[in-house]
Amino acid sequence: MYGRILLVEDDPSIREVTTLGLRGAGFEVVSASDGPAGLERFLTDAPDLVLLDIMLPRLDGLEVARTIRKTSTTPIVMLTARGDTIDVVVGLEAGADDYVRKPFEMPELVARIRAALRRRGAEAGGAPVSRIRLGPLEVDPSGRTVSRGGDEIGLTRTEFDLLVELASRPGQVLTREVLLDRIWGYDYLGDSRLVDVAVGRLRAKVERDPAAPELILTVRGAGYKAARPAAET
Amino acid sequence: MGGIRRRLAAALVALVAVTVLGLGVGTYLFVEARLRDSLLADAARQAQFNLSVLVPGVLTPGTDAATFEATGLPAAFRLRGDVEEIVDFGSGRPFYSTGALDGAITALPTSLRSAVAAGQLAFAWQSLGGQAALIVGGRAPVPVAADGSSDAAGPAFYFVFPASSIDEALAQLRLGLFAAAAVALLLALATARLFANGILQPVRSGSQAAARIAAGDLSARVPGGGRDELGAWAAEFNRMADSLAATISRLEASESQNRRFVAEVAHELRTPLTALVAEASLIEAGAAQLPPDARRAAELLVGDVRRLRTLVEELMELSRFDARAQSAELGPVDVFAAVRSIAGARLPAATLDLPADPVVIDADLRRLDRIIGNLLDNARTHAPGAPVEVTVAGTDDGRSVEISVADRGPGVSAEALPHLFDRFYKADPSRRSGSSGLGLAIAAEHAALLGGSIGAADRVGGGLVFTVRLPVTRSLPGGDGSVMAEAEA
Fold this sequence. Notes:
Chain A contains 8 helices and 12 strands. By secondary structure, chain A is α/β, with parallel strands linked by helices.
C-alpha cells in the first residue's frame, strides 16, 4: 500500500474511474461526493493526501481546503477546470499544494500524487540538516520550524520547502523551473504561477514589508534567490 | 460645402445686380426726361412771352448791340426769371447780356441758328461758358420804323437758361441709386449666406452623423424638425440609422447567443470529457491484455478521445476570448530563450535562426507558447517531414520583434491565404488532418491579446511562412544577462 487518498468529487463517473485508476496504481482510495462528506471522511479516515475537486455541492473545494489547513498539513491536490487562472491561484491560496487540470489522464494524475507523497516521505525520512539563518529568520529543517526573534511562524509544507530550498543557497538564483522540479516534482515545463503564488504567500509571512521584500528577492526574467547575509556582500 | 455656398451667393448677387441695374437705369432716364421737359416747357413759355410781349414796341430799327442794354429789355427779361441772352442783330456784333457769354454765338449749334433764321422758335441743350444750359432761340417781330418802313427781319434772340440744376439733381439721383444698389447687393450676399447656412447646416450635421456611424457610433442621429425637404431628409436619415442600429444589435445578440451557446456546450462537455479522458487512459494502459480486435478498437478510442479533448479545449479557449475573459499577464520574456525552449519541446527538428543577443520584450510566456507552439503544430501537420525554420529578428524601427515559422510544405492557394486564421478553416477540406482547424485562429487571438499580429504569406520556393509581430512596449534590460534584484508587486 502506497498511501491512502481521499478523493472528493461530485461526478460519479469521474469519481469511479479515478478510484479505479488510483487503486490500479496501488493506492488505497476513500471517496466522498460533496464538501461536508469530504471533511467528515478526512477526520475518520486520516488520508495521506486529499484530491479535491473545486466545484462541489454544499461546500466547495476551496472551503474544504481552508478547513483542512486549519488543523493539518496533509498534502492537498486540487482538480481544476483547465485554463481557469482564477481557480488555480485561488486554489493555491486556499492552501492547496498542487493542482491537476481537468481533463487529466491517469498516469499524469498518479505522477502528481506520487510527487506530493514523495516530498512528505523525504521529509519524514530525510537526514536532519543543520539550522539555517536568513536575515532575522531561524530555520530548523529537521524540526520544520521557522522563527523570528523566538516567535515561531506557521508555514505550510510547500512554503517551508520553498524557504529551505532558497535559504540553503543564499545569493544563488533558482529559476522557476528548478523550483518546480525540486519542490513540486515537476520534471516537465510546469506552471510557473505555482512558484509565484507560493513565493507571494511565503513573503506575506516572513517579510517585514511583503511589497518590498528583503529576504526572498525576485531576479527579473530569471527566478528567485535568498538574500546573502550582510557580512558576505 | 464651400462650393454650394459660393454658387448660391453668386446666383443671388447676379439676380439682385440685374434687377437693381434695370430699375436704376429706368428711374434715371425717366427722371432726367421729366426734368428736361419741365425746364423746356418753362423756358419756351418765357421765350415766347419775351419775344411777343416785351420786345415789340421797345425794339426800334436802329437798336444795335451798343444800345440794346439801354432799352431796358435785359432787365425786363431777368425779372421774368434767371435768364441771359444773346441778341444777334445780323451786324456781326451780337449783344451779350453777361460777360460770361462773350463770343458764345459761335458755339451755338448751327441747326439752332438756321431754325431761328427761318423764323422758328427752337431750342438746344448746350454747355455755354462752362455751364450746362438750355438755349431757346427765336426771332423778334420785325420792328416798325418811324417812317413806317421795316426791315426784312428782326434780330435773333437766344435765351440762355441755366440747366446745371438738372445736372445736380441727376448727380444726386445717381449717387442715391448707386448707394441703393450697393445696399441691395450687400443684403443679397447676407441673404445668400443665411440661406446657404440654412441648407448647409442640416447637410453638415448629416455628414457628421454619417461619419460617426461609420466610426461605429450607431447612436448618432441628425437633429430633426422642420416640415420642408430637409426635415424629411433628416427623418429618413434617422430612420435608416435606427434600422441599421436595430439590425446590428440583433446580429450582435444572435452572435453573442451563438457564442454563449458554444461556451455552454464546451463547458457541459467538460465533465463527461474528463471521465472519458481518464477512462481512455486506463483502457490504453490495459490494451495489451485485450484480444486483437478489441485492442485495435481501444487504440482508436484512445486516439479519438484525445482528438475530442483537443477540440473541446480549443473551443473553450476561443470562447474565453469571445467572452473577453482572457487577459495577458505581461512580464519580461526573453524571446530568444522562449522560442528555443518552445521549439525544443514542440518540434525539436526545426532549424532555429536566432539573434546573437537575447531580445527581451513585455509578453506572456504561456501565450507565446500557445502562438509558436500552434504554428509549429500546424507546420508539422501540414508539411510532415519537411524542414521548418524558426527565425527571430527585431524590425528596423526597433518597435517590434518578428518571429517567423517557415515550412517547405505544399502551401495553400492564393484564395485560401487570407482565410487561414478563420475558425475551422481547412485549406483542403477533403484532407483529413489531425488538426481541429482552430489552432491558427487561437494563435491569432493570443497574438492580438499581446498587442501584436500574425500573418501568413507564400514562401519563395514553396511552402508557407507565418510571421508573428509583437510590440516592444518598453525598453527592457537584456543582452548581458544582467541580474536585477527588485521588488515584485
